[in-house]
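ok trying again, last paste got cut off:
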Amino acid sequence: MPRWAILLVSAVVITLLVVAISGGAATTSNEISYDEFLNKVDAGEVAEIKYNNATFEIEVITNSEPPETFRTFSLREIPDTTQEKLINSGIKISPNTNTGNVFTNTILPLFLPLGLIILFFWWLSRRQQSQMGGIMSVGRSKAKTYTTERPGTTFADVAGYAGVKREITEVVDFLKHPAKFGEIGARIPKGVLLVGPPGTGKTLIARAVAGEAGVPFMSVTGSDFMEMFVGVGASRVRDLFAEARKMGRAIIFIDEIDSIGRKRGAGLGGGHDEREQTLNQMLAEMDGFEATEGIVMMAATNRPDILDPALLRPGRFDRQVVVPLPELDDRKEILAVHTKHKKMGPDVDIDVIARGTPGMSGADLANLVNEAALFAVRHGQATITSTSFDQARDRVLIGIERESMVRSREELERTAYHEAGHALCAAALPSHDPVHKVTIIPTGMALGVTMTLPEGDRHKLEQQEAEDRIVMALGGRNAERIVFGEVSSGASDDLRQATQMARRMVTEWGMSDAIGPMSLGDNGPVFLGDGGMTSKEYSERTSELIDTETRRILMEMEARCAELLNTKRGALNLIARSLLEHETVSGDEVDRLIALAEENPSAASIEPETVDEVGGSTTNGGEELSGAMVQDATENG
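nice, full thing came through this time. structure:
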């Protein structure tokens, strides 16, 4: 119920109550009892009375100067004896036809309680409907409409993505000049599907198209169509398209369309699946469009592989525009936009930051700039410095440092050698990404982190690079075995990464001679969860061969890793000693220590300095995991 309506109803009720109270108060002024009235008659003080047969009210007028008026009531009609007394006393008796205020005396007492009861039940009904989403409007579309009256988003607000802008310029031209396409007989795509990872700006690009064309923009998410009632989804689809047709020219944007656009028949329910009915209605509405209507469908998803083929056929979403992770030049433009209104220090170089953030989306870059600003404020700086950006990047990529965590000397040494093994392998392998920094400060869920950053954007992975990544992942485990004679649970995440890489080499990338050039990856789950139902398109014998080949690759890479660490044992000791002394070592320092060990072979005998006891066991009882942090530019394969 609107606030103004509540105030209006309250004012009316208060007014009625005031009128009723004031009316009742007027009738009780100068009122006397019936006995007092008789006493005044006996005393000869009464000159006239006015009697009301309906209400038994007696209006008494005295013979004083000036006359006074009193009111009294009799329980029934005036007795005959009293009437004779009045007549004998010379008192004038006249009828009183004034029944008073009919509204306050009769209507208001009758209808006011009834009206309040009706008002209460009406308010209760409206409250229940609002909690249920409005039972009468449950089939209405929930799309948010942005009209041309508001300041619109244009391509100037979208940093980077020049190729994507060129791809969808035709949509803008069609909405601006539809006659130009009609004259030559061209048909603009009725639907444009924006495909890309989360955070790349698909929704922003769709709004920019509407802003450039100067047409209304209707935005809705796929989940907005679904409700607890059967048939609501289809009803909302019909209402959405009906509203768009009323606007003449408009853009309908459906975010996360995969929630309602999955392939039909993949559900576990019956044939009357509510999601399928919603999809069927959308397919029918899109088929009913004419090119002259000026309505363009746009949608965004990061799972185009699960969409229904009927949704992607020509005449519906017949054009797919890939919105990838930003390249180097795109990241520069995005960072320039997000740092435009922030106080940047003179040492901040946008080009350096962009080169150090491969694989980050536009949303990640916006978060990076904000984290850098928070670091600057936290440390009392007047401007955002390059150090703030370095700290923010480390926090975004590897988590928050936990410097207060207590560990024993033995655990510190084991962690130092573990991370030194990772760093040594990453720096010594020619095709691996260079080391950015190594730390034994507990960060996130890890006891230590070796962070590597690629030198540039990467879109593919060669076999040698994949093998080097496995060697690097196994570096910590092998370093522990070489130095301490046994391994620990700290390498569990390393083993997961190495196994995953080896299995993809065998099943997806054709890098196993025993399997050959075959793609044997499992089909994705029916729904979007990590679990669920999956299917294998190969035999159990092939499955055993996959396990055998995966194990072979892992064993070969482990042997190669052990050989590398034994050969460069001196560098391993130097890096571990530096970590114990400084806790954090940069990538350049790792390279310097490796070069120093090669110049001085006797460094192999150098053992780490004794470290004072700093506490007991880990807060998680030794369950926290230490592992390499490898940041890829893009998903390979």
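cool. The domain at 31-100 is CATH 3.30.720.210 (Signal recognition particle alu RNA binding heterodimer, srp9/1). The chain has four domains: 31-100, 144-267+274-322, 328-398, 409-528+535-630.
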